[in-house]
Design brief:
The protein is about 65% helix and about 5% strand. By secondary structure, it is mainly α. Strands 1-3-2 form a 3-stranded antiparallel β-sheet. The longest helix is centred in the first third of the chain and has 22 residues.
Length: about 200
């Protein structure tokens, strides 16, 4: 009964024990290099969004005022992808390309729509190859996903192949590190169980 409950470590106690090893685990799997990659990846993602919007007929002009629904209609964004396209407008706002003006967006600066040099990033950050390959695959297919020309699942799983997803969950430094953290949590929880 009550004594058994006290013998089992609380989730807070387990978390405290695991937290001590977290930085070491993250560093041992090279996740500190991700901090250098992240701003580059964010810029590449913004460039892919701008390129997709340009392919769909919208090249933002500084000072232009647009309404989300009208813009998405103009670009022929399919209903299933309108929420995603709306989120992309918010990302452009976070990057300072757009600013909110009541119900509208105003173009604050020109975003480069030139393709990102993901191949160069893959050479510089080989441990994040799968993440960068997926970024490139998704980015170059973005316009076709938004206008319904291609199924997004086909982009992620070409011809139904799970090989990319498998690599992401087994080879990516993030997945390896987080699997190590989960293994640590489970081991601590099991150690704390009563012997009976």
């Amino acid at each position: 009964g009550n004594n058994q409950r006290q013998a089992v470590a609380s989730p807070t106690k387990i978390a405290e024990q695991v937290q001590a090893a977290t930085d070491e685990i993250l560093l041992s799997h090279g996740l500190n290099r991700y901090e250098g990659l992240r701003p580059i990846l964010d810029a590449a993602s913004s460039a892919y969004v701008a390129a997709a919007f340009a392919q769909l007929g919208w090249t933002p002009r500084v000072g232009e005022r647009v309404f989300k629904a009208e813009l998405l209609d103009r670009m022929n964004i399919v209903p299933k992808q309108r929420a995603l396209a709306g989120q992309m407008l918010k990302w452009l706002a976070e990057d300072g390309v757009l600013r909110s003006d009541g119900d509208a967006w105003v173009v604050a600066k020109q975003e480069s729509s030139s393709p990102a040099d993901v191949k160069g990033m893959r050479a510089e950050y080989p441990q994040f190859d799968i993440e960068l390959m997926l970024t490139e695959r998704c980015g170059t297919s973005l316009a076709r996903v938004l206008d319904g020309g291609v199924d997004p699942l086909e982009v992620l799983f070409p011809a139904g192949s799970l090989s990319t997803a498998e690599r992401l969950y087994t080879e990516s430094p993030g997945a390896i590190a987080f699997n190590s953290l989960v293994r640590n949590v489970v081991a601590r929880a099991v150690e704390a169980l009563p012997s009976n």
